[in-house]
């Protein structure tokens, strides 16, 4: 059926039960070698290795099912799977850059994205420049004839600045640069990159798509055939591919993405409101709150907010912060986000940016609102603040 809602696409994309004995979910193909009946068939598979099943690393029915589902959801031409979100970022950046090119990356990009640019692209002769995420159309002043890629992450996953994607994309197109976005926070449900001028949309599927903190997975969705071919060829040269069980977990996660996100969104907003009223908190960084500086852009371009946001505390000694965090019962202290469980992560944005200055004196706590009841999460945080105050 055409023109269905995204909730419906999530349930049906990448599935063809009639081609699989009526079984609802696609089979998980564990595959390296593919056998060919004749020399003709073998040679034909080499010529059309991106279209047919030729070798496990290049694609299997399990791979194609996840890629097809992600591309359909995002509204792109086709997608390329990778073994992690970071691998998707590294593959996409490598696909479009060579020595002598100039790349612009938002200053609020995920730390390892920055590290890949600084420690791999620069040694290979690519000039990397970070820009203020709030630059908007002002990006024109930074664009050069050799600017090959403009890399966005909106919102930034630590401090949540929203980028003016249409304005940046319009300016980038004027010099022929490829516009990429790390769309992990919004998922294809809450931000539609291709409708805002983006060429390559990247997801750490590890987060919301998988949704259960039990697999590493990435996906690169491309606007058109030329872009996809460039990315696919690079992924093939690097030997990038995800394992079949992780691809299956990605597909399975997609079926419930919409209902999970509704709860993540609702709980995050409840927690954000509660935190904003706490005397220990100087500011809450959540794009869907009216007091957030990027709120108007978020409202214009996004259709929802997910479960990840930050709270800035008033300055406290490290020992008090440790007392607060060490005794958490429901929130886990750890990296990643997007799973069913709530997480909290202290961070220092000042140390990971170069184009802008972070001057907030207190510690930042990044929270991921999981699927626990928000009242219980609030009790956990309330107890945490009691411990913090007792340690002052
Ligand atoms: C915004 C963002 N992009 C990409 C990644 C990388 O994903 P992965 O952990 O699957 O490599 C992360 C991981 O935390 C992330 O937060």
Description:
Keywords: Lyase, Pyridoxal phosphate. The modification N6-(pyridoxal phosphate)lysine is found at residue 207. Belongs to the trans-sulfuration enzymes family. It holds the Pfam family Cys_Met_Meta_PP. This is Cystathionine beta-lyase. The chain contains 13 helices and twelve strands. The longest helix is centred in the C-terminal third of the chain and has 20 residues, at 257-276. It folds into two domains: 6-255, Aspartate Aminotransferase, domain 2 (3-Layer(aba) Sandwich); 257-390, Aspartate Aminotransferase, domain 1, CATH 3.90.1150.10. The chain has helices at 6-12, 39-47, 61-74, 85-95, 111-121, 165-174, 187-190, 225-238, 244-255, 257-276, 295-301, 318-326, 374-390, and strands spanning 78-82, 102-106, 127-131, 147-153, 178-182, 200-204, 218-222, 281-285, 308-313, 332-333, 343-347, 364-368. The mean pLDDT is 97. 37% of the residues lie in helices and 15% in strands. The chain is α/β, with parallel strands linked by helices and 392 residues long. The strands form two sheets. Strands 1-7-6-5-4-2-3 form a seven-stranded mixed beta sheet, sandwiched between helices. Strands 8-9-12-11-10 form a five-stranded mixed beta sheet, with helices on one face. The structure holds pyridoxal-5'-phosphate.
Give the distance, in angstroms, between the N- and C-terminal Cα atoms. Answer: 61 Å
SS element count, helices:
13
Strand content: 15-25%
CATH superfamily of the largest domain, please?
A: Type I PLP-dependent aspartate aminotransferase-like (Major domain)
Helical/strand content category: alpha/beta
Radius of gyration, rounded? 22 Å
Strand order of the largest sheet: 1-7-6-5-4-2-3
Cofactor: pyridoxal 5'-phosphate
EC number: 4.4.1.8
Modified residues (N6-(pyridoxal phosphate)lysine): 207
GO molecular function: cysteine-S-conjugate beta-lyase activity; pyridoxal phosphate binding
